[in-house]
Amino acid sequence: MAHIRKNQRNLTGAEKKRFVAALLELKRRGVYDELVRLHVRHYRADGTGGLRTGHMAPSFLPWHRKYLLEFERALQVIDPAVTVPYWDWTTDNTPAASLWSEDFLGGDGRRSDGQVTTGAFAYATGNWTIDDGVLERTYLVRALGRPSSPIALPTKDELDWAMNESLYDAAPWDSTVARGFRNRLEGWAAGSGTARWRNHNRVHRWIGGQMLGAAAPHDPVFWLHHAFVDLLWDRWQRKHPKSGYLPARKLSAGDPQAGRAIALDEPMPPWRTTPAEMLGHRSLYRYET
């Protein structure tokens, strides 16, 4: 039977407590940090060689759907009743939103060093030590809204700009493509300042800290953010039922992106799962909207 992923604002106090407890136990067992390392290994930018799986590529959405499932299944080994909630950042779009409460994900970082000092993931609790070699800090860091250079979360109009695009993706299948739902949602754009970041990417920039890089899952909000991205893909599929995943076929040897972008029936490392296998999810989970 499919389980339900709820909007975080609708979670009961007991549901929040169980989710947080499962996260902490996953961290204690070492499973959480291995999931972070998996994301780091499969974050490859346009300018580097080799296959792109998690980002800057058509497989951005199916790869993260599979990744979220792996995380959710790990949580359910600890507590079968726990599911991944989602965060609608077009509605709950301030540091006062419910997900930043002390009984859930904790709040903003303090001004002096960005350290999160409230909630279960505060360094002082001793339960959420970070070692990723990126920020060279052992504590969770946030700078909600980026006070030093303010940035706002995406608006509903900005999200509609992505949702109204009927084409899934297009050549050159990377962060520079101007057309396609995938990159409009993922959010790589030309320009300067905040115009460089759209939708998904803008959310990462708005939170700051570990969320700025490949080790973003160190911040538990990562999973709620990507659950909403996953829900948006589901909504887009229903809005454009004749628009399928692209590229549909393996790129030819002469294509500059051959060996770099994953086609519909090619496996997405580190799994053997293909994008085609991730096009639907309703037999596994559904979203409460």
The helix/strand class is: mainly alpha
Ends distance: 18 Å
How many β strands by DSSP? 2
Per CATH, which architecture?
Orthogonal Bundle
What is the overall pLDDT average? 95
Q: Helix-strand pattern, N to C?
A: EHHHHHHHE
How many DSSP H or I helices? 7
The strand order across the widest sheet is 1-2
Q: Major beta sheet, specifics?
A: 2 strands, parallel
List the domain count as a whole number: 1
Global shape: globular
Per the CATH scheme, the topology name is di-copper center containing domain from catechol oxidase
Question: CATH H level: which superfamily?
Answer: Di-copper center containing domain from catechol oxidase
- Give the class-level CATH name: Mainly Alpha
Radius of gyration: 18 Å
